[in-house]
Structures are given as C-alpha cells and as structure tokens.
Amino acid sequence: xxxxxxxxxxxxxxxxxxxxxxxxxxxxxxxxxxxxxxxxxxxxxxxxxxxxxxxxxxxxxxxxxxxxxxxxxxxxxxxxxxxxxxxxxxxxxxxxxxxxxxxxxxxxxxxxxxxxxxxxxxxxxxxxxxxxxxxxxxxxxxxxxxxxxxxxxxxxxxxxxxxxxxxxxxxxxxxxxxxxxxxxx
Amino acid sequence: xxxxxxxxxxxxxxxxxxxxxxxxxxxxxxxxxxxxxxxxxxxxxxxxxxxxxxxxxxxxxxxxxxxxxxxxxxxxxxxxxxxxxxxxxxxxxxxxxxxxxxxxxxxxxxxxxxxxxxxxxxxxxxxxxxxxxxxxxxxxxxxxxxxxxxxxxxxxxxxxxxxxxxxxxxxxxxxxxxxxxxxxxxxxxxxxxxxxxxxxxxxxxxxxxxxxxxxxxxxxxxxxxxxxxxxxxxxxxxxxxxxxxxxxxxxxxxxxxxxxxxxxxxxxxxxxxxxxxxxxxxxxxxxxxxxxxxxxxxxxxxxxxxxxxxxxxxxxxxxxxxxxxxxxxxxxxxxxxxxxxxxxxxxxxxxxxxxxxxxxxxxxxxxxxxxxxxxxxxxxxxxxxxxxxxxxxxx
Lengths: 185, 395
What we know:
By secondary structure, chain A is α+β, with helices and mostly antiparallel strands. Chain A has five helices and six strands, in the order H-E-H-E-E-H-E-E-E-H-H. Chain B folds into two domains: 1-83, no CATH class; 96-377, no CATH class. Chain B has 14 helices and no strands. The termini of chain B are far apart. The chains are: A alpha+beta, B mainly alpha.
C-alpha cells in the first residue's frame, strides 16, 4: 500500500507544484521589470542612482593636493605615479605629472584614506571603456601645476574654500578605515 | 485547392500541360507560399515573443530595440545567421552533416499539410490525418540522430542519442492520448475530429469526460518532450552538453534547427487545439464565406497560440529534468496514466448520452474552478511576494 500511496503522492506533488510555480511566474509577468535599459532609456542619469559610498574611478582635485606622496606610497599596486619638481629661482615646487592607471587600480580606497586634504577620492564614474590601455591612464596634471600649501588659521582664498570643504567632508565621511561607521554611532 | 485547379483546367488554362505537372507545380508553389508567408514569420515572431515573455517572467525587459518593442528581432537574427560562415568540420561526415538540418526541417514542415486553419483552409484533409502527423513529426528524430552522429563530437552524439530515446519514449503516451480522441470522434481525419466537436467549451473533447481532460495534459506534456522543449530539453542541455546535437553547426544550418524548434511549438498548439479544443469551430454568426473563413482562422490561431504561450510559460517555470527522471516520468507515470485514460474513455462511451452530458458539465465546472483558483493564487503571489524595490523605485 505504501508504494501505491507514494506513487499517487508523486503525481499530486508534480501537479500541485507545477500549478503553484506557474502562478508565481505568471504574477511576475504582470510586474514591472527590475532591470533598467542602460545606457539610454533611463529616467535619471545612472550616476545619481549609485549607492552612497560607491567607489568609482579615482579623481584628484589638484588645487588642494599638497604633494605629500602619501597616496603614491600607500597604493598596494603602485597605480599612482607622481612627479614633483622645484623651480630653482622661486623655490616653488610643482607637479610635473600626476597619473593614475585605472587599469591597475583595484578600488581599495587606501589612497583616499591616507590623503591629508581629501584631494584624491573616488568619483561615481564607472564607465571605463577604452580602445587601448593607455587611454585608461588618467593624467591629472597635464601641465605643470603648483602644490597646495595649507594656511594656518584656515583657507582664505574664496576659490579654494569650497574645495577644501569638499575634501574635508569626503575625509570625514568616507576616508576612514571603517568607512565612517564609528562616527555614525 | 484541387477543385480550383480542375476548374481552371476545364476553363482552358494550362492547355497542353499534363495534369500531373500542373498539380506538382501547384503543390510546390503552395508549399513556398505557406513557408514564406506563414511559417517563417510565425517561427520568427514566436522566437521573439518567447524571449520577451521569458524575460518578463524573470523580471527583465528582453529584446526591444529592433522595430517597435523589438518585434523585428527575428529578422535581424536571421540575417545575421545567414551571413555567417557555414562551417563543416573536417572530421564530420561530409554528406550527412549538411543534410541533417533539412531532414529536421522537413519533419516539422510536413506537419503543416494536415493542420486545419479553417473549414476550407487545409492543404490536404487526409483521412489518416493525425496518424500522418505523428509519423512525419517522428522524422525529426532521424534528422537529430543524423546531426548528432555526423558531427563526430561526443556532445553531439550524446545529445542525438538522448533525443532519440526521448522522442521514441514519449511517442507512446502522446499516441495513446491521441487515441482517446480518435475513439470518441471515430475518425483519424483532422477535419473529421473538429467536426465531431462544437464551438462551445462544453462540446470540446477536452471537457468530454475526466479521462480526456487528463489525456489532454498528458498529450501536451508528451508533445513538449517530443519537441525538445524545456523542461525536457536534455538533448541540447547547455549545462552538460554545450548545445547537444547543434554544437558543431553554425550559420544557416544552425538557424534551421531553431526554426524547426519554434515552428514545432505552433504545430504542438495546433494539434492540441484540433484534438481537444474544437479547432476552428465558431458560433454561427455569419453566412459570408470569406468572413467565416477569417473568423475560423483567427479562432484557430488564437487557440493554438495560447498553447504556444503556455509552452513558453512552462519554460520559464520548470527546471530541466535529469535523464533518468525524464525516462521514469514517461515509463512509470505517463504511459500507465495514458492507458488508464484510454480505458476510462472506452468505458465511458457505454454510458448513456444523458449521463455523458452531466459528467462533461462536471468536468468543465472543475476546469473553470481550477482556472479561478489559479488566478486567486496569482493574486496571492502578487500581493504576498511582491519584492521591495531597493533604492531605485523609478524603473
């Protein structure tokens, strides 16, 4: 009897589970799709929909970069190369180049943690398509640019005030080893 | 068709041409017309619709770029495949390998000879219609086995062997389920079977008695298995066999296999409609023959296409079965059950007409209750299992 009972139960299970499964898939047919049609048919730009702490391609605000080379030293895979030279007459140091190889970068965020001014940080840019690897090397100092020197008692030049504030805000919020979790508590 | 040709010959057209030649040319021409006007767009649109339906059931969008809502996607795919290089591997059998796709295609296309689209819209109303259909669709297995063997490839051979085993096994429940209807209708002719039914669901063979109701589902499952459809697509199971018997094919020949597969879906739907759902029967609303023919065609097409949709739906729902599960499902469950259905229908035919009407009405009531229950379950799933849209509510 047990064999017959299990035989009939098998048939019942097949029919009922197929019935239930088909009702689930049919209900999904009625819902809106979860996916979006990247890159064109989207209501808002994709950058604005990214998560709060998204780590995109690195960007550098050279106006507030002190040239301390902390990021270059801390980078585990040496994807940052910085060249600094000094003008012999004015004793003004300047960048000869500031390159980040996005091909190598693994988006660990250690450079942005060690940066004292928040000049180097993750942007929300993620579209890194290029026809050759050389196109993925980002040159942040296309021509020679002077180093930033923090002033005692806060920045006074109006053009730089906002930039310093943005960098400070980035450091406070993201560029800590725990990602700002301690401050939230 | 033949009557029209006879009339034209009587009127003096094709003077001096032998009768048989005229018939042969007419047959070839009508085959070309059927192929290019009906079957090719049908298989193509089915492929597009399947991808769309499947995508929506998986909460995706699906192909929607070529033409309005992507409806011309099949043309783009077809042109791409035709323009690709047709590779015949050096180690493959040089004669059988190129031939196999055409055998598969022929097996599916021959089925269109007996599919009745309307009271007068049928290529040939053979008196052994359904038997002919079962026979020619079995030709597909020859083509698949040929493709599998001639590819000289382990995956292809395994796929071909699996397909042969599967189709031969599932012929039995399919044939027995068809036999219940043949007993009830008393004829093998497709038109005869349809004429034995009525336009209303209460006159369909599907709701004639509980046994034919079960036989319908057995037939549909077996037909899906014969058409190598998910969940029974083990001959081309991509998780184990790369692409089964089509592994070595490319370009146009590859296209022919899938052309046949998607076209076959419509054949499955059409046969299910003919046998169980009253075919082209429409209520007597008009006397205009043209209007009536259009109405019949639309009715038949919608009924048949509904089952095509169900096949897509099943594909989105059920996982692929294993080979041993496939065989045990066929031999341990479907063959005995279809025998029970056959014997039950035979026994049922001894009951009086009055009793038959009552049991038929009860079966129909059960079916309606099942459908209502189904939509209640859909509503429940929709409310209870609605996923939260995480941080992106605007899509």
